[in-house]
Write a structure and sequence with these properties.
It comes from Streptomyces litmocidini. By secondary structure, the chain is an alpha+beta fold. The protein has a two-stranded antiparallel sheet with strand order 1-2.
Length: about 110
């Protein structure tokens, strides 16, 4: 059965729990650990949900925030309904398949 995997990026929550509320407060901690990112990159990291990350970045964030990767990224999975296969019989709605007849009326 197909499964849908989703995740929630919790960086902002963890920062707030540790008294960090701005990007400027996070930047020096990243720099002192060797992670060089621009302020706009850090802002996107804090305010959005990243699609891709280099592994040193979440590892460094976990060190800064004294947390684990599972604290930083919460995941969930759910089963999706099975899709119909080609051989499966399904009721056919003929009304949806047939075009409606056009009625021509004289202009007048």
């Amino acid at each position: 059965m197909p499964r849908q995997i989703s995740y929630r990026w919790r960086l902002r929550e963890l920062m707030a729990a540790r008294g960090m509320f701005t990007v400027a407060e996070l930047m020096p901690h990243l720099t002192e650990r060797g992670i060089t990112l621009s302020s706009s990159q850090v802002h996107r990291l804090v305010s959005g949900t990243p699609e891709r990350l280099s592994l040193p970045v979440p590892a460094t964030l976990c060190d800064i925030l004294d947390c684990t990767p599972t604290d930083l990224i919460s995941t969930s999975a759910q089963n999706l309904p099975a899709r119909r296969t080609a051989g499966e019989e399904a009721p056919i709605n003929l009304a949806a398949r047939r075009p409606t007849r056009v009625r021509l009326t004289p202009e007048g």
